[in-house]
Specification:
single chain, about 240 residues, alpha+beta, Thrombin, subunit H, 2 domains, 6-stranded antiparallel β-barrel, about 30% strand
Length: about 240
């Protein structure tokens, strides 16, 4: 069973990220289908019977990357039921006119069960398959072999802003303090609702997604973790 999960995750992530990289470095998809502004490719995830939501990055027409802790409850080894989620796009997650796009399937890394937040470190990624293509361009994805992380990144999400707004898509410059092969630590932004949102470089390329915070308080000084997307290259080795 573990081998089957590993293969499913590996194949899905290879498909998703190869598609995203192809969009950046070849004539297909057309350039018009790859976002020049990564905010255009940022989505929000709404949960049934809840006012909470998470953010996500569209990396292929029907595939989103988000944080695993957004779609899996502690103490379980399975994701939420896909019909509990809908995905939307635009500037405002709280005033969206249509009903969004349904989620067809949720894929988690092979090591699926966790009981504490710390168990997620290095594997806080999930892939959402949509039941139809999103009506927006996909996000450019940085090359896997890029080991250097800039000192500043841009966080894009729908979480609480410094001004206290919630549900409005925003872009915030954050400072990177440290990083390893799987995670990075940053400050200057990130709060409730930003989890799963993209962290992009100055070229607008996706490097990581917003992961866990070190405190429930959202302050400029608070350090938060980012989950590097190149960590998926070694996730198939996790039993």
């Amino acid at each position: 069973m573990a081998g089957r999960k590993n293969n499913t995750w590996r194949c899905l992530m290879t498909l998703a990220l190869t598609t995203a990289l192809t969009a950046c470095h070849s004539a297909w998809p057309p350039a018009s289908q790859t976002a020049t502004n990564p905010a255009e490719s940022t989505a929000f995830i709404r949960f049934q019977n809840s006012e909470s939501f998470c953010s996500a990055a569209l990396i292929a027409p029907r595939l989103l990357l988000t944080a695993r802790h957004c779609v899996q409850l502690p103490g379980t080894n399975q994701p939420m039921a896909p019909d509990q989620l809908t995905v939307g796009f635009g500037d405002n997650a709280l005033q969206h006119e249509d009903h969004g796009i349904a989620v067809q399937a949720i894929r988690l890394p092979p090591q699926t069960e966790f009981s504490r937040a710390e168990d997620l470190m290095g594997t806080d990624l999930a892939v959402l398959q949509l039941n139809r293509a999103a009506p927006i361009p996909v996000m450019a994805v940085a090359q896997f072999q890029q080991d250097e992380i800039p000192e500043q990144l841009t966080l894009i999400g729908y979480g609480v802003t410094r001004a206290g707004y919630y549900g409005l898509r925003h872009e915030t410059q954050v400072k990177v303090h440290a990083h390893n092969k799987a995670t990075l630590t940053f400050s200057g932004g990130g709060c409730k609702g930003d989890s799963g949102g993209p962290l992009v470089n100055d070229k607008g390329e996706l490097l990581a997604i917003v992961s866990l915070g070190t405190s429930r308080l959202c302050t400029v000084q608070q350090q938060r973790f980012g989950q590097r997307i190149n960590a998926v290259a070694s996730m198939d080795k996790v039993d």
